[in-house]
Amino acid sequence: MSNHIVIVGAGLSGLRAASLLSARGIECKVLEARDRIGGRVLSTSEPNRPDLGKFDLGPTWFWPQYESTITNLVKDLNLGTFVQYTQGAMLSERFQNKPPERYVLPENSGERSIRLIGGVQSLIDAVANTIPSRVVELETRVTAIRLDEAGAITVEADLADGKRKIVSASAVILALPPRIVACHIEFSPSLSANIITDLESKPTWMAGQAKAVAIYDRPFWRETGLSGFATSWVGPLQEIHDASPESGSGALFGFFGMPAKTRRELGEDNVLKLVTDQFVRLFDPSAQNLRAILYKEWFRDSETAVEEDLDPLRDFPSYGQPPKSGAWEKKIIFAGTETNSQFGGHLEGALLAAEQAVFEITNLNNKSL
Q1: CB 202 within 8 A of CB 178
Q2: Residue 11 DSSP one-character state
Q3: CA angle in degrees (0–180, nearest 5) for 10-29-301
Q4: How many CA atoms lie within 13 A of 144 on its CB side?
Q5: What letter would DSSP give residue 9?
Q6: What kind and span of H or E run contains 91?
């Protein structure tokens, strides 16, 4: 059984789908617009100080208590993990001109989250290593998918050198944010109106967020009994966590309460000054002694966000599979974390979406035998 499947997107979902298909002897090709694999997974180091470690500018954790798919995969791939540091007091900053309040949370009051040694990129790399060579093609931006009257699919893509690539396929897995599919890929025949409406209604997870990671020689806040966990109504960061590696350097990262449009107006330098000032305010003047600060604005990533994603999320989005209808029903399959109804937005959701896509492909192949 050997059919050529094209997977668009080399994030966790696309790579996992390629790995599962390859293990079943089903030929596939992964086309990725970026010059790297991982999608919204991005673990990086300070270029001048790689000794300080790698830090996640995308997803950071998983929760083994209720996310069994990623837990089992991490175990199968023999990846090193450690528990997110939560020992000590938390800080709560409620007022502009008052010091933060300090609280000691009851033991086991929060869900235990797990981090990967080397960042989540270690999971991406391990999954990629299970895929045959030359399956993944980078800097290949899919622009159109066409279906002829005989049922044959052609996928058109732009290459980095300005050339155009045409790939034939029996089916296509779209492992992309739904809004990116709706905005950036032309379909012939067109997707039905209800599918387009559904895709456009699914906000891209993290697309309106940014991540700032402040790196220090050591996690100095632990020496005064602080966990590194803080919440703030003052900002610019709304929620802060210890981002230190398992050993060695220290790091703090935060999620922004400040909307993406405000950050865009302020500019990166001003935003990072506000972030540093907040760390000093919360964790004492030692927070000025930065070794590096990493910053990723996801709304600037054209392979992640569209203009609508700059609007802050008011509620958790309603994720799940788009409706199936029309000529494309058995020809394109949607994957990616936003297509999983239970764990949408999580790494777990990306993996479950990949498994579902491969299940559908396998069923199509079995029926065609």
Answers
A1: yes
A2: B
A3: 25
A4: 12
A5: -
A6: strand 89-93
